[in-house]
Amino acid sequence: MRIALIAHDKKKNDMITFAIAYQNILAEHELVGTGTTGTKVMEATGLHVTLFNSGPLGGDQQIGALVAENKLDLILFFRDPLTAQPHEPDVIALVRLCDLQQVPLATNLGTAEILIKGLERGDFAWRDARKDKVNE
Ligand SMILES: O=C(CO)COP(=O)(O)O
Predict the structure, then answer these.
(1) pLDDT at 130
(2) Predicted pLDDT at 132
């Protein structure tokens, strides 16, 4: 599965803690991420993350473009609900595209834990049939 890792600044520690805790599961999958989040996850875990731009510089939109083509299977996007983001429209657009393509999306640590355990259990097998199929 191809997994996107994104975290707003105040949620980056959550993402690093999560990536360390579930490193063994994440290692079995292809990881992509926004610039700063992906770099921090690589430094903390040694896992490889394909990097896109930083979120405010278009990274969310680049990841959204992959979702639009149904090329992502899981998005872990830890949002900060207490800080205004200059690129809020990009954030909303990414969430919308996940809904469009039925791509599982966690916007907080609690949901991410449940989804990653589901991933380990094989609950994402249905994605194999849908992968790369757009708007069906
Ligand atoms: O802003 C972000 C998501 O909206 C995250 O971007 P960075 O990982 O580059 O900080």
Answers:
(1) 77
(2) 66
- pTM across the whole model: 0.95
Distance 11 CA to ligand 1 centre (A): 10
Could you tell me which residues come within 8 angstroms of residue 50 by beta carbon, excluding any fewer than 6 positions away?
30, 31, 32, 33, 38
For atom 10 of ligand 1, the residue with the nearest CA is: 36
Q: Is 99 exposed, middle or buried (0-12, 13-18, 19+ CB in 10 A)?
A: exposed
pLDDT in tens, 42-82: 999 999 999 999 999 999 999 999 999 999 999 999 999 99
Can you give the residue range of the structural domain that contains 115? 2-81+90-127
Assign residue 101 the CATH number of its domain: 3.40.50.1380
**Residue 69 falls within a domain, yes or no?**
yes
The reply, when asked if residue 29 is annotated as ligand binding, is no
Q: Is residue 77 part of a domain?
A: yes
Q: What is the pLDDT of residues 5-51, one digit of tens each?
A: 999 999 999 999 999 999 999 999 999 999 999 999 999 999 999 99
